[in-house]
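ok new one. same drill as before - structure tokens go in, u give me an amino acid for every spot. 442 of them this time. try not to just spam alanines like last time pls lmao
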């Protein structure tokens, strides 16, 4: 018997063997399926979802897998006692030979992960919110002064300004590196390692060897940047208290900065700018009014001030819902398990690969009305919807802890996003020559 919960999910009062549905779909040919996935992106999942009329189905992404595509069933990906992490996130596959064979903590489920997570949590706990706000504001303000010049070229100048999205990536890199290393690090080095060390290198023979050498040398260069950071003594002291080696400590800081902080934050910052550029005048004015009121009532900009900006928080949350920086998450079942979707109950066998699609989970019509429409104040009007927001490592409202994979830097990222967005809203007027468009491929 089915009942409809207050959450909007279809639930069963009891699960009998005869109520467990078989998982539809076929694994097909891996090359054909992989080609479709590359060309269609999330549309490939949506096509299969429509074909099978189920939110759990078999498919092939080069390896045999089971897709989980609604907001209820994707939660099975975070049952850490039943699933383990895979060496992938989104389109990225970790190349350990380009990282001194160090496995990042976010991809492990053993005691080593707990030690690294404890180290990161303790480190972040010592960074005051006001320090994050002050540093972010200073660096954003400096970058804005630069933008004021390069995006206002002289009338007779034929020089083209730098691409706006590339400028935002530079800004994000400067903020994150200043916060965690107290110095500016070469953006090109970070961006090269972040993208190329995490992708399959397809060039053959000597070209591949040379490419790997270049990427590895970049990794060593970034390691040296950490060694020259004034924060290194603190990192080493704290890390040793968690039984980490010196290389483990440096790698944890490096991977946390580049993959977790920079990788996620820069993508969301670019989308924030794009969305502001196409906001209606009414929505923009509502946001500006809220920001001005909060700053005036708090006599300045502080963490308490940011907490009063509920429309701004909603705007950023809606960006995270519609443009999650990671669309696909991967887990492998460590035991036989039953998973519950809005379309039924399914049995997953030990060893099967699970692929959760955050893009579709955030467009689940049982949870989000008009899921394909960007509504900047969706979460302001219904704050309860935040319970259904998914991050790559867990549900948004889950607090980071040693026992889970929730992003330990979630608070830092949100403060940086709020600071960047309010500065754009309050101190800029801009429009795009070609308005940005969003589709369901990515």
């Amino acid at each position: 018997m089915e009942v409809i919960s207050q959450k909007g999910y279809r639930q069963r009062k009891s699960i009998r063997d005869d109520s467990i549905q078989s998982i539809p779909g076929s694994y097909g040919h891996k090359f054909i399926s992989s080609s479709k996935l590359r060309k269609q992106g999330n549309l490939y999942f949506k096509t299969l979802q429509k074909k099978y009329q189920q939110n759990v189905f078999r498919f092939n992404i080069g390896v045999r897998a089971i897709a989980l595509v609604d907001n209820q069933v994707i939660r099975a990906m975070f049952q850490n006692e039943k699933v383990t992490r895979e060496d992938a996130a989104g389109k990225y596959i970790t190349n350990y030979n380009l990282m001194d064979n160090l496995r990042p903590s976010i991809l492990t489920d053993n005691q080593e992960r707990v030690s690294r997570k404890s180290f990161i949590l303790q480190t972040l706990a010592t960074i005051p919110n006001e320090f994050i706000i002050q540093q972010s504001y200073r660096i954003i303000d400096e970058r804005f002064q630069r933008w004021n010049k390069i995006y206002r070229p002289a009338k007779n100048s034929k020089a083209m300004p730098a691409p706006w999205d590339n400028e935002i990536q530079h800004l994000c890199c400067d903020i994150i590196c200043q916060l965690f290393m107290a110095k500016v690090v070469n953006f090109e080095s970070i961006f090269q390692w972040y993208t190329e060390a995490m992708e399959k290198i397809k060039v053959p023979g000597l070209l591949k060897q040379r490419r790997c050498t270049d990427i590895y040398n970049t990794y060593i260069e970034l390691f040296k940047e950490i060694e020259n950071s004034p924060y290194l003594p603190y990192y080493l002291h704290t890390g040793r208290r968690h039984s980490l080696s010196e290389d483990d400590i440096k790698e944890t800081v490096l991977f946390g900065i580049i993959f977790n902080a920079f990788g996620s934050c820069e993508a969301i910052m670019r989308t924030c700018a794009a969305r502001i550029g196409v906001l209606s005048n009414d929505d923009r004015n509502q946001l500006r009014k809220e920001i001005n009121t909060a700053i005036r009532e708090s006599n300045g900009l502080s963490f308490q001030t940011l907490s009063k900006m509920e429309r701004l928080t909603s705007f950023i949350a809606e960006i995270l819902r519609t443009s999650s920086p990671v669309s696909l998450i991967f887990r492998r079942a460590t035991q036989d398990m039953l998973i519950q979707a809005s379309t039924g109950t399914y049995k997953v066998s030990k060893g099967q690969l699970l692929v959760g699609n955050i893009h579709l989970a955030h467009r689940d019509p049982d949870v989000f009305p008009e899921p394909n429409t960007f509504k900047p104040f969706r979460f302001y009007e219904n704050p309860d919807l935040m319970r259904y927001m998914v991050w790559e490592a867990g549900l948004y409202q889950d607090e980071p802890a040693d026992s889970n994979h929730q992003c330990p830097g979630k608070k830092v990222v949100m403060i940086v996003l709020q600071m960047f967005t309010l500065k754009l809203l309050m101190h800029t007027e801009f429009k795009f020559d070609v308005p940005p468009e969003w589709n369901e491929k990515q």
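The chain is about 50% helix and 10% strand. and btw Residues 1-8, 10-16 have pLDDT under 50 and may be disordered.
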